[in-house]
Records
---
Amino acid sequence: MSSVLVFLENKNREISRISWEAMAAAHTLAEGLGLPVDLALAASPGNPIFEKIHGKAPRTVYAIDDKLLHDYTADGFTEAYRQLIEHVKPAYVVLPHTYQVRDFAPRLATRFKQVLISDVTGIEAPSGTTTPAFIRQLLQGKLNATYRHPGTGVCFLSVQAGAFRADPAHGGATTLEPFHPKLDAGQIRVKPGEPFRASAQTVDLGSAAILVSVGRGIKEEANLPIVQELATALGAELAASRPICDNGWLPMERQVGSSGQTVAPKVYLAIGISGAIQHLVGMKGSQCIVAINKDENAPIFEVADYGIVGDLFEIVPALTAAVRKVKA
Amino acid sequence: MKIIVAIKQVPERDARIRIDAEAKWIDLRDVEFMMNESDAYALEEALQLKEAHGGEVVVLSAGPERVGKTIREALAKGADRAIHIESDDLAGYDALGVASLLAAAIREDDGEDPDLILTGLQSDDLGLGQTGVILAELLNLPHASLILKIEKTGSGIKVLRELEDGWFQHLELPAPAVLTIQSGNSKLRYATLMGIKRAKTKEVRRVTVADLITVDPGAKPADPVVQLDRVSLPSKQRTTQILSGSPAEAAAALVEKLQFEVRAL
């Protein structure tokens, strides 16, 4: 019987939050198709991480167990996951769209002559004769596209962080089944080093109630003081989108987005930030989002509660003055 | 060192978004094009490796005639020669189909095999983020993605890979290998006047899909396994109150909202 198979991700000995979201997406898909959901995780069956699996009960949890999977490598994971897919024969494979998944999943899908539908933000259930539809974003979030997998063979998809709400914890009987892939050390061509952090964190964006975040629209490093003044007036921390940190105008630790920090403050002010997907995934959980941008079609306005369309060089100083007035 | 850099031409960042008549893509009339951002960084890494170790940088791109402009830009920046896979209907291919064409062009390229194949992490238009990794699988080469730095070692390369949440990792790979490059690590060079002049005399070999299939029947892309059904403008996830008026009026209105509705001040 075919199924929906979800690969969870083990990140620092925890199952990452986005894995639960992928599981919720898989349940949505499976319910529409009347299929069971199975889970898989690369860890030995005795690993306490398996006790942390919650949400709607899957049919089977596969513990993919081999010492060559202890450290992540694309070669090792691609081959082990391929063997499990051959064994389980699912109709759909669902993965969280993480950096690790982006590294091996295209390779895994290619081994089945398939193409991963990556970074999915929505699933439309099948109706009548149609197959399910998968929504993903194009042009950095300015356009939505509906994709289908019309053929036979396993359909691979990865789901975007924050796009699906993780199901609340449920009890339920689940079978834990060890799976031992046949791996050979010679198949692993890449030698991975230990992960490290570039520098000690001195700023904790996660604990700030208000974040003033600045993007490409600021144009030059010399213009940064106007946003710093606004942040000071508001008692806020200063944050930034990736290009600002790449340019070295602000340290990496102030970067919000998929390659930086994920934040959810009470108020997030996005100044001169267009709102590419990579930035939005890091801040769209904020309670209140304010966008100041010259382009009224910028994707940031899709997630904003309040927006001001115009020249940030006029608006930001006016805002600083208005904040100082009410705080005085 | 022979380095092949796969680059893609994409609509400019500020291109106007109008959906075309078939609702399959945006209307490309009046749209300007540019080199995909992370591909530009892949080219920069390749040029720096060549400067340090010698060798050749070959640019590979697929698409219609207009792609020639982006190829010339890469040559003007310092690439030695280029391969242009000419096709007017790439939209009919899925990522595996496009990667199959690139793989065929790499296999049939004259001279020695490449030591390194670089491309950007993902395209700014379709954003699938897969072409480089699929290419590695098709060529049966090791790969690493999200790469910020490349160093040559005795038998291969050592790279710096970006992980999530501000973490990094070094990896060692044997050559040849495929790397997908993350944007932003180095400063992109501009083409010099001399470079632009020289680019005009550099070799751009044009091959068609039919040419590639003649040499390598395996290059014939299969029917797409994934299809783009339609595109649409995104619906808003939140209701946005646009605060209008002069900068001072909009600012005052926002402060009032933050004070009395959000209760954050």
Note: Chain A has eight helices and 18 strands.
---
Amino acid sequence: MRVITAGLALCCGCSTVRSSALRTGNPARPAAGPVAVRFTDDPTNAEQLGIVEAHGRRPGVKLEEVLAELTARVAALGGNVARVDAFPTRYEMITESYTYDCGTTQTHQEPRSVTRTDANGQPTTTTEFVTVTEHVAQTCTGFHQVEAATLTVQGRAFRTRKEGP
Amino acid sequence: MRSRLLLVATLAAACATPVRSEHVLTGVARQAWAGAVKVVMDGAPAPGAYDEVAIVNATGTAGNATLPAVIGALQDEARSLGCNAVIRVRYDHGAQSASATGVAVWIN
């Protein structure tokens, strides 16, 4: 039972994006505007607000979803620029559950009343046993090892300072 | 004989699985580029001036879980966005699949 729970739990996280953030700068109100994404250089004249990461199991989760989650985290910290520092993909073998039809065929004897007319024209009722075969439906849970890839996008949240007058 | 045929069919199916690629625009895409696409691995010095266009990713499985197949697909994805280079390319692989992620750019 413990194994089944673990298997189902692993499968439940197949297509969700998860994320986390850590504020390292001054508190700021969540930003409502767009968040720019930069991969190769820090924004100029900007304050770093925190560290952010988003990850998801591939291929169920799309790159777009992971990046959208990252920018949402940046906005929640009050940032308007996401500086992406790394985007590693980690591979691991996991246990996944699956269900399959494991129904069986069962045979048993069933009584049946048979009425026949004898030579004198009199009806005679007798009980006979007949063989009945039926399919007993059943769903079983199996487990197998599959390779899972997790894409993580890590970066920092920045808030650009407004230019002076 | 039957098991051999099954093995050949399985291998053929595995090799035929195309490399999946995708991108997310973070800049402005251009018209598709027909020329060569330079690949700069993560950690290697990036070329001079460039414009960031998108983050690109390619994933290959089974027979396509190879460096040439995955990087080739990454280049094709960048080419379709009008980019002439992919920089900060990171290549990761497992037992059955491999992927590469990078930043598609236009080197001025």
Note: Chain A has two domains: 3-91+149-160, 103-137.
